[in-house]
Design a protein that fits this description.
The structure holds two protein chains of two kinds. Chain A is an alpha+beta fold. Helix content of chain A is 33%, strand content 24%. Chain B is 31% helix and 15% strand. The chains are: A alpha+beta, B alpha+beta. The complex binds flavin-adenine dinucleotide (FAD) and FE2/S2 (inorganic) cluster (2 copies).
Chain lengths: 290, 154
């Protein structure tokens, strides 16, 4: 690995229009720079070789972190993960997001890294992704041609591939108010504190003891080419049957839906084992707390 | 391109290339060698500096991104040419062996204790999770940080 970064042009626009202009001009040969904790690593290892790097930290309107009571939370593209963790509402209302971001990288990196960068990098292991999936987050994508909202479930297309067009960028993520009475949690199995997930599981549960109102959502990192939410388990939990039986069935469904690979972090067999164990642990804990 | 950095209270104007990192510039252009390079990929934390008050890994920050900001390296914690109590605590607790990682730990500890002098052991561990020391086994570092907390209480 060469230690010197490859050559690129550096731009630091102060308005969104300028940034969009640059993206249009470079036609896919430019990369957005937010916290740089993925991009600079990818530049150094020559995984990415853009002609231009567009630093968006000079665009004031992207540094927006706003909670609207009854509606949800808006997280702008330059809000760092530590800023998110320090916002009291994130801890008190968006448990599963708080829990996953707390386990993402380390304190020094979270002073730079952003939530939007985590999803735009589109790693199958992105720790915030399962949380955003169970919370039904919406991603705002903007280009010179206009803007659109992409549901988070449609945002991840493949390993390191998002639904963004080359001239588009994300300005913010909107996270709707979690369902009333819900609790959430994220479990991450890792080799050491500062590593990507071998498997990550996010869960959200509401009204565990009232089958008709009961809500159960599960999403995973590092078990498929993209982070995935397993919708098939959700209907199951509306049944008025003993929870241990439903948990068994949910685990079976999850195991059918995942397609883990073998890599340095773990074998596909071990990942399946973790899906089994962590899904049970997470659901049991959320049911008992609820 | 020209950028301005305030490093340990002193202003520098430096000519940098887009592909130079803050780590490169601090070491090679400004000449502060206490900032070490280990992995160049964000994993070891040895390159940690305070950027506008917050610990960051300088191998993952472009020099251009740091334009106009304030940097503190371990030298910046000294007062009138003397070691700060936190720095002394590292020596007294045997939290330094080869010293390669020391400035990263001291800077992180300074940030941590400045925010909250009543830190718990767990909070100390969480703050230094992203830093690697190959010598001390961490225990002495944790003890040094906890012992220095009293100097941050007003
Ligand atoms: C040592 C180390 C440990 C790590 N540990 C973890 C971990 O435990 N879990 C985890 O999930 N990740 C981890 N990461 C990865 C990384 O820190 C996170 O993915 C982080 O959230 C990325 O955010 P960023 O702002 O730094 O992104 P950047 O590096 O700035 O950007 C990431 C990618 O997204 C694109 N991008 C960024 N913002 C936008 C935008 N607004 N619109 C369009 N494209 C955009 C960039 O062009 C780039 O390709 C780790 C990284 C390192 C170096
Ligand atoms: S050299 Fe920067 S983290 Fe290792
Ligand atoms: S004292 Fe040698 S690496 Fe920490």
């Amino acid at each position: 690995m060469s230690l010197i970064l490859p050559k690129f042009e550096y731009y630091k626009p102060s308005t969104l229009d300028e940034a969009l202009e640059l993206l249009a001009k470079f036609k896919g040969d430019a990369r957005i720079l937010a916290g740089g904790t993925d991009l600079i690593v990818d530049l150094r290892s020559r995984i990415k070789k853009p002609k231009a790097v567009i630093d968006i930290k000079g665009i004031k309107e992207l540094h927006k972190l706003e909670y609207i009571e009854g509606k949800g939370l808006i997280v702008g593209a330059t809000v760092t993960l530590n800023e998110l963790l320090e916002h009291p509402i994130v801890k008190s209302k968006f448990h599963v997001l708080y829990d996953s971001v707390r386990q993402l990288a380390d304190m020094q990196l979270r002073n730079r890294a952003t939530l939007v960068g985590n999803i735009c990098n589109a790693s199958p292991a992105a720790d915030s992704a399962p949380a955003l999936l169970v919370l039904d987050a919406k991603v705002k994508a903007v280009s010179k041609r206009g803007e659109r909202v992409i549901e988070i479930k449609d945002f991840f297309k493949w390993v390191k591939k998002t639904a963004l067009e080359p001239d588009e960028m994300v300005t913010e993520v909107f996270i709707p108010e979690p369902p009333e009475g819900s609790r959430g949690k994220y479990y991450k199995a890792t080799r050491n504190v500062e590593d990507l997930a071998i498997v990550g599981v996010a869960g959200l549960v509401a009204y565990p003891n009232e089958p008709s109102k009961r809500i159960v959502r599960l999403a995973y990192a590092s078990v498929a080419p993209t982070p995935i939410r397993i919708y098939e388990v959700e209907e199951l939990f509306k049944r008025d049957e003993p929870l241990p039986k439903l948990i068994d069935e949910a685990v079976n469904i999850a195991l059918r839906k995942v397609s883990p690979i073998t890599d340095v972090r773990g074998s596909d067999w071990y990942r399946r084992h973790l899906v089994d164990v962590l899904t049970r642990k997470l659901l049991i804990e959320l049911f008992l707390e609820g | 391109m020209k950028i301005t950095l305030t490093v340990n209270g002193k202003k520098y104007e430096v000519d940098v290339k887009p592909n130079e990192t803050l780590l490169d510039v601090l070491r090679d252009k400004i000449g502060i060698k206490s900032v070490k390079a280990g992995c160049w990929r964000g994993e070891c934390g040895i390159c940690t500096v305070l950027l506008d008050g917050k610990p960051v890994k300088s191998c993952l920050v472009l020099a251009a991104e740091a334009d106009g900001s304030e940097i503190v390296t371990v030298e910046g914690l000294m007062k009138d040419g003397r070691l700060a109590p936190l720095q002394k605590a590292f020596i007294e607790h045997g939290a330094i062996q080869c010293g390669f990682c020391t400035s990263a730990f001291v800077l992180t500890a300074h940030w941590l204790l400045s925010r909250n002098p009543n830190v718990t052991r767990e909070e100390v561990i969480e703050a230094i999770n992203g830093l690697i020391c190959r010598c001390t086994g961490y225990e002495q570092i944790i003890e040094a940080i906890l012992a220095a907390a009293k100097y941050y209480k007003k």
